[in-house]
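A protein record pairs a chain with a discrete description of its three-dimensional fold. The following entry can be read in just this way.
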Amino acid sequence: MPGPYARLTARSVQIRTTSAVECAYGDIDGDRGRALAVVMDRPIGERIRERRKVLGMSVRLAADRAGIHHSTWSRIETGQMGADNRYTLAAIATALRCSTSELTGGPVIPTDKATAQAQASVSSIRLALIETDLTEPPYTLPVPIEQLEREELLIRDLRARCDYVGAGRRAGEALRGLHAAAFGPDRETALRLLVQVCDTISFVLRHVGYPAETWLAAERAHQAAELLEDPVMLGLAAWTRANAATSCGSYQRTFTLASRGADDLSTTASAFGYIEVLGQLHLTCANALAGMGRVAEAADRLSAADGLAAQVGDTDTFGLMFGPANIGFWRVSMETDGGDPGRAVTLARAVNPQAVPSPSRQAAFYLDTARALARSESDKQALRMILAAERIAPQKVHSAPLVAELVRLLLHRAHTRAVDAELRGICERIGLIP
């Protein structure tokens, strides 16, 4: 492996031959709770090059199919340009006939105990999702619906705080309890809670790096919403499915699901949560349209979301955090990936992250701003944004392949000079060896 990543210790090589969870548990410092010597997998650019060669494509042909310049493709493959642009990655994945997760290499090799434990919970969540098909009777006895209501709120709070370990541990039992309750006298309430729990679980699975399971959870939310026949819950399930499609890199499918959900929900203008869910669907449409290069249509959807946000202000309905401040977060993200990174930085300066009381959303904002700053070659400021995100949501940062890719870029730029302590520290915590 070229450049600063060439020096692999014998221990690092050994870790590559074991499973991700075994690596993390085998190398956890019990006192500090982080890995001692784990190296991240290959850069995304290398994965792109290998996939292209397997398909027998030239750089020019592949770049043409992706709709990007061949020099941009070459710079990504060689690591001269970070492969952390979500829109570009989706286009490359389409050109190479694969999913974005195949290119990013997710889920990441865990470098701390929390990331390993979050990944270890996925198999139990998958089993619970399979066993809670609403066309089949439950295997377990129901519990009081009040207990399930409290559990849904707790799991949603764990998600907002990016405690993927805590949410993952409780997910299976909550799913089975709600499944059983859906066959009893509290059926309507149970189905409503099931849509919301599955939305939360889908979110957690997406950020831990399991897109297929993310879609499975979204489909279970959709199944519950259809049985409930509640327009707002159907809209929330559409939002969940659209986000699951985004995690696979399919912006066309994302737009189809979100726009259909918005159209269906537009006929219901009085139910609780109607405005917030509709606003989030418009934002999802805008992001998907921007990812497909349909900028004018994306702007129209953003305007629609702005109008709805003006009616309700900043909210936390269903944990969506819809409102003017969160729309500001989305604008920064969309400008970073599809517009002008310099403008994204300008927009970020006008946003108050504390107006959205969700560590998950705040961390996402800091990471998007970091990517914009890095593309503006403000590396020190980008690093500060990454560290800010890590302070409030370490599990989110340590589980994200695009964060590792961004740090790789910062490290690549710093390889000719001394790597400062902060950059060295984040490299160690996510498994890069400076």
The two ends are 13 Å apart (CA to CA). Strands lie at 28-29, 34-35.
